[in-house]
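Why run this: before we spend reagent on co-expression, it is cheaper to look at a predicted model of the complex and decide which construct boundaries make sense. The entries below are exactly what would go into the expression plan.
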Amino acid sequence: MKGLTKYFPILEWGRQYNRATLTSDLVAACIVTIMLIPQSLAYALLAGLPAEAGLHASLLPLVAYGLFGTSRTLAVGPVAVVSLMTAAAIGSLGVLETTDKLLAAACLALMSGLMLIALGVLRLGFLANFLSHPVIAGFITASGIIIALSQMKHLLGINASGDNLVHLLQGLLAHLDQINFPTLVIGISATAFLFWVRKGLQPLLLKFGMAKRNAELASKTGPVFAVVVTTLTAYLLDLGSLGVALVGDVPSQLPGFSLPNISTDFWLALAGPAALISIIGFVESVSVAQTLAAKRRQRIDPNQELIALGAANVSAGSTQGFPVTGGFSRSVVNFDAGAETPAAGIYTAVGIAIATLLLTPLLAYLPKATLAATIIVAVLSLVDLSILKKTWRYSQADFIAVSATILVTLVLGVEFGVSAGVLLSILIFLLKTSRPHMAIVGQVEGTEHYRNIDRHQVITHPNILSVRVDESLYFANAHYLEDQIDNLAAERPPLQHVILMCTAVNTIDMSALESLEALNSRLSDRGIKLHLSEIKGPVMDKLKHTEFMSHLTGNIYLTQHRAVSDLVEQDYCI
Amino acid sequence: MKGLTKYFPILEWGRQYNRATLTSDLVAACIVTIMLIPQSLAYALLAGLPAEAGLHASLLPLVAYGLFGTSRTLAVGPVAVVSLMTAAAIGSLGVLETTDKLLAAACLALMSGLMLIALGVLRLGFLANFLSHPVIAGFITASGIIIALSQMKHLLGINASGDNLVHLLQGLLAHLDQINFPTLVIGISATAFLFWVRKGLQPLLLKFGMAKRNAELASKTGPVFAVVVTTLTAYLLDLGSLGVALVGDVPSQLPGFSLPNISTDFWLALAGPAALISIIGFVESVSVAQTLAAKRRQRIDPNQELIALGAANVSAGSTQGFPVTGGFSRSVVNFDAGAETPAAGIYTAVGIAIATLLLTPLLAYLPKATLAATIIVAVLSLVDLSILKKTWRYSQADFIAVSATILVTLVLGVEFGVSAGVLLSILIFLLKTSRPHMAIVGQVEGTEHYRNIDRHQVITHPNILSVRVDESLYFANAHYLEDQIDNLAAERPPLQHVILMCTAVNTIDMSALESLEALNSRLSDRGIKLHLSEIKGPVMDKLKHTEFMSHLTGNIYLTQHRAVSDLVEQDYCI
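The model came back. Tokens follow.
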């Protein structure tokens, strides 16, 4: 039973479901539905797909997450960064027909869903930890810039394309003469309005005496308001005939089940992008879910989240949708609006279904510029270059990784940015551990503590050299260590003892063991004994059975202090 | 001046050169020359090249190393593993003509030489440390097996080919009916004789009263003896007409300078193999050089060694040779024979030049089976499966890396084995550090030491939890740490303080800092304060300027003992 609830969290929260929870969930679902309609249309546009794909991706996937998800408040659906990655993946196939694009998008979602489920079942969620915070932050910032730029063409009413900074700017500049002014007016007004809603509406409502929470939620309905007003304007002024791009006919029917049927070559070509989309979608979603869960002292299970997001994507892929994940702003609204269980997501899906059946005829006159404006306003909040400043001040390694991620994403596109960031952070970590910090230590007077002689007033003995190595000993630093300590010893002629203080040594691998053997005999050639102190339990367990223990010229001491006292005493005895 | 001697070590040892050194070097050079002639022919055969290529590779490269090398006794030339890798690289091009093979081999040597020089100039020699000892041991063992198998066809006088275990065995079995019996007799006798020389000659000579060192050196002349006897036999009995494969005409002239002229496609195709050959050759050579230098209390400079080996390979590439490096057995002989300076290598080159001019006509009757026998006997000493047992007993991670290296080398060939081993060892290291060992610690009674509660009798306090994390905190383990400590805290309701003991924390990167922030606020939500103790100097330097310091609910203590005493005292005061 416990095992079953693990895989179907609905069995847990479902049992405590009552009227109060129902009411809270329904209110939240209504607000999220209103927010999600323009977003789902806009992100379909961003992914290079017709508007209905956005609605499809906001139906069954929400139900699937509701059944399997462990977060009580995560709102799943199309999100900006994943939609951009979808556009890039489809773009790399070189298909032009809309039906082919839809198939490719569904195929991406399906594959990504299966990959997520596989990771979840194999409990490999921890692999996502290899994406460091700065790399993710850099990637999202750079993606935000690319997304905003990619939407400029809709705001200007021109034809331009490109999936990186250079191409986008070139495309825009080359077509500046084709600007469509009615489109520009709609676009600029919508953008200005949405910015004002974001910054100015809430204070205004508060001033008029509205409760803070309601004011916050009301300010989230801005996009719907913009959609309604611009659609009406376009209809009344017949803006379509003035060259304003409109969304056009959206079929007012629910999607059927069907697996995308495309060639093996395309499946193969999409496997890499699907993997990237999976991992980025998962990392984004899980961090939102974790943040929100912590606020209510709830917990989420990352491996079950993989399964839930996987199920959501498999449903998106089999109902003509495209890749989805948990979105930040949407989940925050869901949380603030009082959603208490994943049922809120299921009710949202019902809301979207009703909208699909009833409201789509009205969307024909919706200007694309309005959708572009909602995207631009939404993603500019993702752009946060302060991560550069933060890492610059705190950590060189992180700064290099984050700048590389931003630069590569901007210049080469989203598909390379994350990989570059991850590889670089791993490389830097390896390089750092391959040249570890070492300190010569001495006794802090009157204590049993041994500290760096460069940082503290300490007592040392001319015939004893105590070295603390601040890293595990493994193949990449074994030789370095051997050479450094041998050099330190060579510089100190009266030396008789070297004590290696192992407080920070968490493992000693085979290569390092061989290097210690070599160091032991090199020091022995110089008439110096090698001692070890403060070896950790797990490390000692392994060393115990090795030949090294019998070759070691010196002793192994539980504490550094005992080592030094013992060796000093021996000296007096001689 | 110091800088110049750094790049031209000859300026240092050349100044102290005198008659005694000259005599020692000349004696060593004579013995090495006698050993090198059959070896250079045999390794050319192994590389799939005509015999003269081996002689060419033993001329100028030795002079180049003599000018730039920092090892006093390293003997450079063709070696088994690098020759096998050369054969594999040429094989992958699919060229059949001997002249094309020679060009490809020269091109490999040239590229590998340039790569080595580049690594040396950029002082990137430390990169070789990422090849762990067990991976190298596994690779050499597996290569030894493949080499021995690849020579069986020469011993049996059949035509078979293949570059991995499966293909080699298939090839041999498929052609067993074509065995040439005169070849088999020559091959088996030569092999048996060489094994006997290796094991039995030295004891025999000692029994006859020969000095140990002379007996050792005499036992190294076995291959030359085998060459002379089998060549004479082949000449006298006209074995060629009986189907015994002979070396045939070897041009008795010195090679001219010429850069290999092959298509760009081939250069590109050979770049990967050239890089692998460089790194394997360097690692092998440097470990031999280091071992020998340590015996005489000399030192070698790995970055200058890169330049010297690079120069040797550039010369090999521009004089119709193939990739060379420092060989183990040859260098030991050079060392034992008393070589004192790299001049011995230069004299050896002169010896080989004389042999090329005078002795090559005699080589026409040399049976290939004899060369195959010398190779087999030489490489079987490389095969040492004990590394499997050693790593099995000492370290799981190393065992996995070494078994993968052996398996992949045997099954997929030399080009994949090392890469698989290196990638796997890095991956395992990353995975290990991503799930670090953690210990709850308590005070060892009567001391200021804090140890693992599972391993020692310690004192703990119910409202204080002290956790020691045995790893640097970085992106791959940041989340894990956050979750683990939060879980530990959640299990202990009366808890008021968590002390993170950082003796083994060598860095805290940006991701880990953010996780600490998150942990701090998660614990704070539970009414628990987070304290840090024993933070290292370099880590503290970075933390000092962060916002985390002002958010931290608890304190930072220099020592774990002070942290606990302080918190216990606070408790009594309340």
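Chain B touches chain A through 64 residues (CB under 8 Å). The CA atoms of residues 482 and 519 of chain B lie 6 Å apart. Bring this page to Monday's planning discussion.
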